[in-house]
Each structure stands twice: as structure tokens, then as C-alpha cells.
Amino acid sequence: MRPEARAVILVLLGGVLLRLVLSGEYTNYVKPFLHLPLLSAGVLLLALGAVGFVRDWHSPGTMAAERRRAAVARIRTHGPGAVMAPDESPLDPSVLETLPEPLRAEIEPAEGGHDDHPEGHLVGWLWCIPIFVLFLVPPPALGSYAAGRQSALVPEPPASTRFTPLKGSDPISLQVHDYAARAAWDTKHSLTGHVVTITGFVTPHNDGGYYVTRMKVSCCAADARPFEVQVVGATGRFSRDTWVRVTGTWVPAAGAPTNGPPPADKAFAAISATSVRKVSTPGQPYE
Amino acid sequence: MAATGRTRTREGYRAEVVILVAALIAALIGRQVLIYFVSGRGGFATWATVFVAIVVQALPFLVLGVLLSGIITAFVPSAFFSRVLPRRAAFAVPVAGAAGVLLPGCECASVPVAGRLIERGVAPAAALTFLLAAPAVNPVVLIATAVAFPGRPEMVVARFAGSMVTAVIVGWVWIRFGRTEWLGSRFTKFIEARAGLDEAAQAGVPTGRARWEAFRQAVNHDLFEAGGFLVVGAAAAATMNVVVPPDLLQSIAGVPVLSVIMLAGLAVVLSICSEADAFVASSFTGFSPTAQLAFMIVGPAVDLKLIALQSGTFGRAFAVRFAPLTFLVATAAGFTVGATIGVFS
Predict the structure, then answer these.
(1) What ipTM was reported for this prediction?
(2) pTM above 0.80, yes or no
(3) Of A38, A119, A108, nearest to B228 (Cα)?
């Protein structure tokens, strides 16, 4: 890969990263705590690309001089054998003439060595794939397809989890995973007697009903886990991936035991809905 | 010589311009096709989201890693490493493992850094131990593990011990059986050239403007070499993420040995960042602590994204030997620390 091509890709990569961060779209892929690291990475990549433009986008003559300077720098750094980066074009003989004699002697035999890994030249082009995908069709946040691949079972919370009593006046807004964990696993029924709202997207299931779903992400979308709450007694029909706000009260899911913790294969969550309203996609699609 | 060199340069230039233009045209046509698939929100959109997510999440850490490797190349003289590291590689290995505590990144950061360490004269075994230890034992990862397993500090201790033991054992195995030529020509050249030089000749770092130029060259080089392979690894991991049926796992959760090996294998294919894998491990309810530990010890040491990065930096001959070795050692370490905390709790 030529330095000029690298500069173009660096600028594009930095640009696309900054666009993701500034538009807030990055939350479709990673958690908000990566905001600052992503911003700095974007700025650094842009700067690196800009410097690349200034230093590498030259007439052939200046480029040869630049190469000479870089080659000398590399030899000083790494010792002989480092005449050129593996992806650089061969040194101009004039470069060799400018080097001190002992270095020159070391260099000559090593000169053919740069063609050992021609594939190393090309692999950098792969950066184009994420750049094009992000510039042209930034993929949406994970939705019902990803959620539907996993079962609606609510995983057992860690043994140390304490379900604190709900605070505030009804209706109380809860995160979907919080509601699901309480609904399926809270043997003290902290949800009883409250009207709550949960916001998520619609995932249809085989039995004809639908679930309000939210993905829980720890770092990036690769580690997403769905939390799904079956909507019982719902009014209206919604197509998959529609974002809805469900207001309702807790009901035990079908087949759940009336007291004591459920067996792990029966730990479903459900909500008896009084209203289901369509809402716009939230800024942060994951919890 | 001069003439052929110049012709080749010009041809290479033209070829790259053609590639760039072709890519632009392909993108404009492909866009319609992509929109069709992505807006469908089906399997392809899910794949694209996970692929982009892995790349975006890894980028800050990769940038951190290549900046660090640039600094090592341009600003830290070799003498520094020969001073802080014990001369005998067998002793340098555990010291390098302990130094891993200092790099608060995930696995993408440590691969280019390890490459530059070898260039600076650090014994390959010690650099490889650092490569394995850094993403697994740094404070960020340990805190994340403590948060993911509240009230179970033994999981944090076991994870630390398991990863450290894995890194050190692999380093020692490399001393005994490793060969320099597996590292690829970029490094063998350096190692051979160094062998013939005296101490004074090794110490140099460039000065003035040349120093910044060397820094920029190193950063550029590592970003594109390692980064290109990161894209490959992210694509492979995203494919696995969409293809592996998640409910298959739950059915084998109770089976003693098989469940551990399954989670270890899953850590390889899912390629989750080491700062997040504890949360995923803790979500595998029904699995034994041993299986969860194996997941967390194998993940930062060997996964698809990491194998791709390593073959980018060290070459294929290295990756095909190093990945299976690391997997075996890490899985064994998972069994061992799992059994140990089983005895104590």
C-alpha cells in the first residue's frame, strides 16, 4: 500500500468514526462509555491522515528525499536490515550513496528481502469494508431478529442481587431487564401493587403473542443479550421492531410457580398491559 | 535497477488508483443491494451490526496499542528493556507477565506492542507472555470481572491466576520449543541482525525530526498491518455470532467436562473484548464456575479476531502453532483454577 492511499483511508476512517460519535449513532454498536475513547481515536486518525497527506503527497523527487530520511531513521532505530518498511518501493540507489559506509555494506544483501510478504501490502485495504458500510448503509441497532434467535427465558440474577422496593409514584418507569428480572425471579414480588412502564421493541413469538424486548449490552453489540417481557391482554397490533411503551401491571407468566423461585426453564416474564403506545426509537437502543 | 524500480512504483500507483475507483463504483452499485438487505433487519443486518460493532469497539484500543508501539519504536532505547528485564529469558517471562498489569487495553492493543517489543530486543518468549497477560490481567478487566460476579471475589482471583499462569507457561514452552523463523521474516531479520551487534549499537533511537517520522511510520505500519486483519477477525466473529444457535449451549450446561470445553470453544469463536467477557460469562447461568473461568481465561488469550491479528503481525506459520498451544494451556488452566476454588469454597 502506498503512503498516499493510507492517508486517504486514515482520513476516511477518522471521519466516519467522528460522524458516528457526533451524531450519537455509535450507541447502535457500543456502550456510551466508549464516547471519549472513540472521539479521541477519531481525532487521532484524522490527524495521522492529515500529516500523511502533507508529508507523503509529494512529487517523486521530494518523496525520494523523504524515503531517504525515513530509511536512515529506521536504520538508526532498528539497526541494519530495516532499510525499508516491508511495503515500500525499493530504495533509490542515490539513497544508498548518502549513507555512511558501514551501513551501506549491511544494506546491500538485504535489499531483495522486501517482497517476502506481498499479501502484507494488500491487507490494509480491508479497512475499506467497514468504512463503506458505515458511510453508505450504517446498520441499525440489533432488533427482533437477533432477539428471536435466543429464548425468552430470563437468566437467574446473581445470588447477591437484592430487589429494592420500587420508588416514586405510579406509573414507575423501569428498564426492561430490571422488570424482567423482578417479574421472573423476585420471590418477594416487589412489582405487586405498582403500575409500571417499560420501553422496548416488538418481537413476535411463535405462539402468536408478542414480547417487548430490549437488548442488554456490556461493551459492544457482539455481547448483546435480549430481555423479553410477554405482553398480555394487549390492545392493538404492532409490526416487529416497532418501539413501544407498555404501561401495565405484573402478572405471573404462564406456568410459573405461585411461590418460590421458578425452575430455570420456566423463568419467563410477562406484563398485563393497560396501554401500548408507539414511541420513537430511543437515543440509546441498548440497556 | 533505478529504471525498474521507478516503473514498478508507477505501475503500483496506477493499480491502487484503479482499485480505489473500482471500489467507489462497486460501493455505489452495491449500496442499493446493501440497503435492501440491511433494511430488511434480518440475518444480514444483524451480521453487519455485529461486524461494525466489533470494529468500532476495537478501534480505540487498537489506536492506543499502535501509539504505544510507535513510542516503543521511536522513543524507548533497547537498553531500557535490557535493563528492566532479567537477562535470562526464563526469568524475563514472569516479569513480562507481571508487566501486563500496566496496559489497560483489550487484546487488540497488545499484539502490535508485542511485535515492537521483539524488535527492541526483548526475548520473543517474554514479548509473547506480555501479549497474553496484558489483555487478561489489567485493572480494568479485573474490575469488570468483580462487577460481573458481585460477592464472588474468588472469581477475580481465579481469573487473574489462570490467565497469568497461562501466559507464563506459554512463554516457557516457547523458550523450550519455539523457533525464531516461525515469527516471520520481519522479526527474524531483526533478531539475526541484533545478534551480530554489540550493546552500544543496539541502544540507538532516532533524534529530532527523524524520531517523529519513525514514530509516524511505525504507527501507520502497525495500524494497517494489524488493522486489516482485525477486519477479517471481526467478520469471522460476526458470522459465528449469527450462525451459532445460542440455545444449543443451555442443553449442555450441566455436563461436567464437556460444558467447560464448550465454553472455552465459544470464547474462541465469539471474540468478545476482554473487558466485556466477564459479563457474558456471568450470563451463562447453569454453567459451573470452572466453565465460566475457562471462558474468561481462553477469551483474551485466543479468539478469531486475535488469531487474525497475530497472523497479520507474526505470520501464518506462527499463528497455526501459537493458537492451539494457547488454547490447550488456557483450557487446562481453567480446569485447574476451577478445581482449586471448588476446594476452597
Answers:
(1) 0.79
(2) no
(3) A119
